[in-house]
Amino acid sequence: MDYMIINGFNTSTLPGCIVTDFGEVEAAKPKGEVAEIHGVNGSYRVLDGSYDSYDRTFTIHVTKMIDISIILDKFRSNDNELEFSYHPESVFYAHFLTASYKPFGNHAWQLKIKLNMQPFRYQKTVNPESYSGPGTINNPGTIYSEPIIEVQGDGDVSITIGRETMYLNIKTKATIDCRQGKQNIYNATGAVQNTLRKRGGFFEIPTGRSGITFTGNVLRLIIRPNWRYKI
Predict the structure, then answer these.
(1) Chain-centre distance of CA 219, in angstroms?
(2) How far apart are the C-alpha atoms of 30 and 48, rounded to whole Å?
(3) Rounded to 5 degrees, what are φ and ψ at 79?
(4) Which pTM was predicted?
(5) Most buried pick, 44, 96, 107, 168, via CB within 10 A?
(6) Residue 93, SS3 per DSSP
(7) How many other CB atoms are found less than 10 A from the CB of residue 18?
């Protein structure tokens, strides 16, 4: 029986609820502008390194009208975490757009949900990587990762992953959230304190293997990598 998990809620827990159509899936499409340049055959595309979202419509069969309300109540306006029965151990993110429903025969309903899908598929179960000294990290995905990094230590420190370095001044612990739209530095109490970062951009871990080093009084580095894939 096909189902989807919406922010932890499994639609298969509703009797007779079946996802009958998961919609059309699009591969991650790079963003860019096409320029017409004199003397160049065809067109010239300038990419900015980011990727487009896309709209996708899901169709769900339910036997009770109340189940429509139950399902829709599980969605947030933005940043919904989704899992699909056809792709286990993977997580997708989407914004809610619209929903509609209609009778399906005499004893059922058809619910359509339109979502704005974010461009990547994420690996669901990923253990954090922990370092007490220099090491390496391997990105098995097909696109750069935007990790969440916990730094335990004190004073002026620097963190280098691959070719990127960030300099911070921390007390006890700091957490670096590198996810686009959520980029922040959190102090040991969990409060936002971006002044802890002195210089250096947020990390993107490229595919393949990257070296990890740090300077200063760093006791431990814990990386939650958020591996992801273009399809």
Answers:
(1) 28
(2) 8
(3) 55, 50
(4) 0.90
(5) 168
(6) strand
(7) 17
By the 8 A CB rule, do 56 and 25 touch?
A: yes
> For residue 99, with 0-12 CB atoms within 10 Å meaning exposed, 13-18 middle and 19 or more buried, which class applies?
middle
Q: Do residues 215 and 166 lie in contact, with contact meaning Cβ atoms separated by under 8 Å?
A: no
Task: Give the total residue count for the chain.
Answer: 231
Tens digits of per-residue pLDDT, 33-70?
A: 887 777 777 777 888 888 999 999 999 999 999 999 99
Sign of CA dihedral 193, 197, 201, 202: negative
Whole-angstrom Cα Rg for the chain? 22
Both tokens assigned to 214: 């740090």
Q: Which residue has the tokens 């829709």?
A: 72
Tracing tokens 């055959």 back to the chain, one arrives at 41
CA 182 to chain centre: 11
